[in-house]
Amino acid sequence: MSFQFIHLEAFSRKGDGKGRSTSFVFNEARRDPAASIHVTNPSPPIVVFGVGVSEVERLHDATADAATTTPKGGKPRRIQKTQHTLMTVVASHPHTMEEVRADAEKRREAEEWERRTVAWLRSVYAEKLVSVIRHEDEGYFHIHAYIVPDDPAMRAAGLHPGQCAKAEVMSGGPTEGENVKALNRRGDAAYRKAMREWQDSYHETVAIPSGLTRLGPQRRRLTRAEWQAEQTHAKALKTAIERAREVKRKGETFVAATKEDAARIAAEAAAAKAEADRQLAAAKVATEAAKAAQGRAVQEQRKARSMMARVREEAARVREATARLQRLPGAMRSMLDGFRTSKVAARIRQAVESEMEALRRAASDAADRASVADAGRREAEARAKNLRASLTETGRDLATARCELAALRPPEPAPGISTPVLRRS
After folding, report:
1. I need a labelling partner for 101 at 20 to 30 A (CA). Which of 130, 280, 306, 339 fits?
2. What are the UniProt keywords, alphabetically (predicted)?
3. 32 by DSSP, 3-state: which?
4. Facing residues of 131 across strands?
5. Structure-model confidence comparison of residues 346 and 395, the more confident one
6. Domain boundary, last residue among 370, 385, 400
7. Which residues are paired to 143 by β-bridges?
8. pLDDT tens digits, one per residue of 163-197
């Protein structure tokens, strides 16, 4: 056996003609003794997806008890127990449980098939798929899926693609010239077409990657050679798909690594560009600063040259003034030299604002001292002149007095004649 097997069936709470109700289904899945007489050595099921069987039963029964339906023109009422309220799906793999237990590779193949089947069921039934279990106490590796309807009336028929397709045809009524039997045949054709599409979807998604054929040999009346050839083709197709998947995985890994490398290189390039921009900006700032400093240096050099020229001019004027002042008294010349020197210093330091005020004060003090010294000199000269005039006048008066005194002095007596002495009486 190497062809796919998947089957779906709906159940009601009352049960069908064989007595299979939702309770029986849950009991059989749970391996209750009364419902497991067909199994030699029953063992508890293994939950593959969702919740356990007992939890599914509680959820189903509570939902069914609350479900209602509203007939046309009537009031809402509870659904009948004969209505299908549970949809089940059974899928089986060709490997037997003995093969799976004995061969690790076959175990891997069966588990991979199981994973694909669960993924397909979830894509088809979404949140309505509440549980998937696996039984390992029967002949073949297989799983059971339980789907609970989520509409208010809890119609499991809405989850059956064949029944939905036929109901849609029947609701449209017969076409022109079509009787009821023809309409029913058209509905059955829609049913079969929908079920083939359902099987084809499973085949493309699960069976082909698992190396399973779409149909078995008896259904298509194939010879043993034809059937073996188809099996070989299916295995080759599976191998090709696995290789393609591996190539895709490696390609995705390479693309992801390439993207990471590209992102890293882009990040490094961005960081390098940012650093280059920063350094360029810093270089521009340094260049502008250097240009400004050079401009200031040129200006200072020009100022220095102008200052030196003024100093040389002032020095020449000082030398000329010094030559003119050589005829003046030494004290006056020193004072004027100091005053000139102070003026020169004041002019030189005009270019340096920080020292200008001190030079001005020094020049002012020198000028004040020169003025005071000049006034003292003039006063001293006046006093000396007055003193000389006074001395001259005094000398003349002294000479006159001496002449008058000489005229009044008596003559000297002759030798031998005594001079009488006058006595006071």
Report:
1. 130
2. Coiled coil
3. coil
4. 50, 146
5. 395
6. 385
7. 91, 134
8. 999 999 999 999 888 899 999 999 999 999 999 99
Residue 115 lies in a domain: yes
The widest CA-to-CA distance across the chain, in whole angstroms, is 219
Each residue's pLDDT tens digit, 198-215: 999 999 999 888 888 776
CATH number for 19? 3.30.930
DSSP helix/strand/coil, 9 = strand
* Total residue length of the chain: 425
Higher pLDDT, residue 422 or 387? 387
Total domain count for the chain? 2
Three-state secondary structure readout of 180-239: HHHHHHHHHHHHHHHHHHHHHHHHHHHHHHHCCECCCHHHHCCCHHHHHHHHHHHHHHHH
- Domain finish residue from 351, 367, 385: 385
Q: Is residue 346 part of a domain?
A: yes
Q: Which long-range contacts (CB under 8 A, 24 or more apart) does 200-207 make?
A: 201/120, 201/124, 202/4, 202/6, 202/91, 202/117, 202/120, 203/4, 205/116, 205/119, 205/120, 205/123, 206/4, 206/113, 206/116, 206/117, 206/120, 207/3, 207/4
**For range 90-118, the mean pLDDT:** 94
Does residue 180 fall inside a structural domain?
Answer: no
Mean pLDDT of the chain: 80
Closest CA to 206 of 69, 418, 49, 6: 6
92 bridge partner residues: 5, 142
Residue linked to tokens 């508890």: 44
Please check the confidence at residue 217 and state whether its pLDDT lies above 50: no
Question: Do residues 325 and 337 lie in contact, with contact meaning Cβ atoms separated by under 8 Å?
Answer: yes
By three-state DSSP, how is residue 150 classified? coil
In this structure, is residue 22 part of a structural domain? Answer: yes
Among residues 334, 417, 340, 320, the alpha carbon closest in space to that of 377 is found at 334
Determine the structural domain holding residue 370 and report its residue range: 305-385
The dihedral formed by the CA atoms of 259, 260, 266 and 267, expressed in degrees to the nearest 10: 150
Amino acid (one-letter) located at 261: D
Q: For 306-325, how does the pLDDT look when each residue is reduced to its tens digit (9 = 90+)?
A: 777 776 787 778 777 767 66
Do 110 and 91 form a contact (C-beta atoms < 8 A)? no
CA distance 34 to 10: 21
Mean pLDDT value across residues 330-347: 57
Among the ranges given (99-108, 353-362, 386-395, 401-410), the one the predictor scored with the smallest mean pLDDT: 353-362
